[in-house]
Design brief:
By secondary structure, this protein is mainly α. The protein has helices at about 5-25, 30-35, 40-70, 75-100, 105-110, 115-145, 155-170, 175-205, 205-210, 215, 235-250, 255-260, 265-300, 315-325, 330-360, 370-395, 400-415, 415-425, 435-450, 465-480, and strands at about 305, 310. The chain has a two-stranded antiparallel sheet. Helix 1 (about 5-25) crosses helix 15 (about 330-360).
Length: about 475
């Protein structure tokens, strides 16, 4: 598939998104931008959240991770499932009862202004980094397989990507995203299913024969329980996955903003529960695809693509889909899936960052009515510029597998949110609100020190994704120390 053909496909895809934006953004009000008028059908939100949760990171990085970790990522995904139930039955009832626009408003009602701003700050940092991770991965694929042919700098690729998102989210915000995410999820799942089908066909296998093959067995180890000292031990991965979901969904304005557009709490719960099971199934499909990609590469002597002189397994899927003669159907479905995966998470991230900054930091609802829309639009532009800057920085500092990096960073940035919300929900203590930011900063520092202790100093124990609940526990203990007598 040529670079020109890929650009035509991207243009057609965004034409469809612009059409959706035209119909959903007619009102162009802050109410629709932030909460979609609380009229979103729950099943639409559930299906769209699959794409937003998976994102470009899962679409490319999870299949690329299979060679090194086999199917052990499913341990984390099983933890996700439990975490989604906690979100549905513990956190969402609180948000609906308080009728919040930003979920961090809960912290102000429970503790005070400083807690509110601190929680919003950690979300802001987390989501900027998370969204930048996801878009970075897609940008390097577009760069390597499209724009390098035309000598377009990486920085221009990033600017174009963000500009397209800004255009179709500028008016409708979350109302537009609920509908575009549905379309994007459909394309993403279709891309995985068709890729599995056509690669199996090329190998002369049926899907059943693939599942029964000796080649798959080499990659299909799910449970890691040889030693608790290992980073990917089942218990550590499962608990880490559970808390990652609680934080990256239940304590994250990006993901919860979609849920808060449902008409009722009952609808929001149905959305969360149904979405969680679909997500587990779709993630397993990604793992199967990853194994199939490496099997196909080995049988056809396809090398792992290089990036800056080093093998980059994240690029194996695009390499096989676009450059190995599997045909236009695989190439087209891959590109549609990639674009959908990237923008289904990035567009909602941009909207949620705009929402949080307006509500949590600028108190936009207290501003004069005639100024509110203008402020929101300016913030939307500012958030777009910020994402561009961070993605470009990643180009020069990021070296490891993207999804592993994303989950590792989550351990530092979401831990304080976990501690704050857990303390608020499970205790009745009042605290000295003005000291909360100090507690959270100390928590991150201690977690960073712990996460970087050499395994030899811990008797061979390797700290993994359990760093997130440990960080949350440190924050929780710190809040106990500043409670009011």
């Amino acid at each position: 598939m040529t670079a020109t053909e890929i650009l035509i496909l991207i243009a057609a895809y965004f034409g469809v998104l612009m059409l959706i934006s035209h119909f959903t953004g007619k009102n162009d009000s802050n109410t629709d931008f932030f909460k979609a008028g609380k009229q979103s059908p729950w099943y639409l939100v559930a299906f769209g959240m699959v794409g937003a949760s998976l994102s470009g990171v899962t679409f490319i990085s999870v299949p690329g991770w299979v060679e090194g970790s086999q199917f052990s990522y499913m341990q984390v995904v099983f933890g996700y499932l439990v975490g989604y139930f906690v979100v549905a039955f513990v956190l969402m009832p609180i948000y609906y009862k308080l009728n919040v626009t930003s979920i961090y408003e809960y912290l102000e009602q429970r503790f005070g202004v400083v807690s509110h701003k601190t929680g919003a700050f950690f979300f802001f940092v987390s989501r900027v980094i998370g969204a930048a991770f996801r878009l970075f991965l897609v940008a390097i694929v577009l760069q390597q397989f499209v724009f390098d042919d035309w000598n377009v700098p990486f920085e221009i690729t990033v600017v174009i990507s963000i500009l397209l998102i800004w255009i179709y989210t500028n008016k409708g915000g979350i109302k537009t995203i609920v509908w575009t995410d549905t379309l994007q999820t459909l394309f993403m799942i279709l891309a995985v299913v068709l890729s599995i089908y056509f690669i199996n066909q090329e190998l002369g296998w049926t899907f059943t024969e693939f599942l029964a093959s000796d080649e798959l067995k080499q990659y299909s180890n799910v449970i890691v329980n040889d030693s608790f000292l290992e980073r990917s031990h089942f218990i550590k991965s499962f608990l880490g996955g559970m808390f990652i979901t609680i934080c990256m969904t239940g304590l994250d304005q990006d993901m919860m903003q979609k849920n808060l557009t449902c008409k009722t709490l009952a609808d929001a719960k149905k959305n969360m529960v149904s979405f969680s099971f679909v997500l587990v199934g779709v993630t397993f499909l990604f793992m199967l695809l990853g194994a199939l990609l490496f099997i196909y590469a080995n049988k056809n002597n396809i090398s792992i693509p290089l990036m800056d002189g080093s093998p980059k397994t994240d690029l194996l899927f695009p390499e096989i889909a676009l450059n190995t003669g599997l045909g236009k159907t695989v190439a087209i479905t891959f590109m549609l899936g990639l674009i959908a995966a990237a923008y289904s998470s990035a567009d909602s991230a941009l909207t949620s960052l705009t929402t949080s900054f307006c509500i949590d930091f600028l108190d936009i609802e207290k501003k004069p009515k005639q100024d509110q829309k203008r402020i929101r639009k300016r913030v939307h532009v500012l958030m777009s510029v910020l994402l561009v800057i961070v993605i470009i920085i990643f180009k020069y500092v990021l070296s490891s597998n993207v999804i592993d990096s994303l989950l590792t960073v989550a351990g530092y940035t979401y831990g304080p949110l976990l501690g704050l919300f857990a303390f608020g929900i499970f205790t009745k203590f009042k605290i000295y609100d003005k000291y909360v930011w100090i507690v959270t900063v100390i928590s991150v520092i201690l977690a960073a020190i712990l996460g970087n202790i050499p395994s030899e100093a811990l008797g061979g124990y390797v700290v993994g994704y359990e760093l997130l609940p440990i960080n949350g526990l440190i924050t929780f203990i710190g809040l106990i120390l500043i409670r009011r007598k």
